[in-house]
């Protein structure tokens, strides 16, 4: 994480602003920011949860990075306007160029349709990673892995609900606004996750619900 962030910080410093070239470049950045956290947490979880099944352990480890990437992409798409206000943009230049919109103009009302096309492309990629995150969460064995499932299910459901908010509106590209879930919805997810964490089918139903926006 430290070496990767030094690299991106140096790149931004050399050009006066950080710009990410394409989707692989963005995901590499996300790996240093959040994928490494997924790897660290997985090692900590594995130290606490017995995992005699080597194949299951391998599947869990394989999905640790996508979990982190999915959550970070959600943070990026929901915070475009907020980041823009402080002179930062994490959207890939190539995706913006494909839609004919310079990143500096991404919040202009007349560019909103093109800007939303960029965000929806990233939302689709985030959903791919979060599908891996769902399998990661369900792979932890019961009953020992129930606390890990709960720990993972809450941010995963919140990320899925937030993606739906980004996709169904335009607040992500409106200055002073940010797509977000309500406090009531957060409380609902917390209660639902606590009840679903120890049951595979209940957890799948819960995540499917928020995958569709609730």
Put simply, the count of helices is 9
CA-based gyration radius: 18 Å
**SS-based class:** mainly alpha
Q: Average pLDDT, to the nearest integer?
A: 93
What is the global morphology?
A: globular
Outline the biggest β-sheet: none
What does this structure look like?
- The structure is a single chain.
- With 214 residues, this protein is mostly helical.
- The chain has a single domain (2-211), classed as Farnesyl Diphosphate Synthase (Orthogonal Bundle), CATH 1.10.600.10.
- It is 72% helix and 0% strand.
- It has helices spanning 2-15, 23-48, 54-78, 80-85, 93-98, 112-139, 146-168, 183-196, 200-211.
- α2 packs across α3 (54-78), α7 (146-168) packs antiparallel against α8 and α8 (183-196) packs antiparallel against α9 (200-211).
- The two termini are 34 Å apart.
List keywords for this structure.
214 residues; mainly alpha; Farnesyl Diphosphate Synthase; 9 helices; 72% helix
Give the gist of this structure.
The protein has nine helices and no strands.
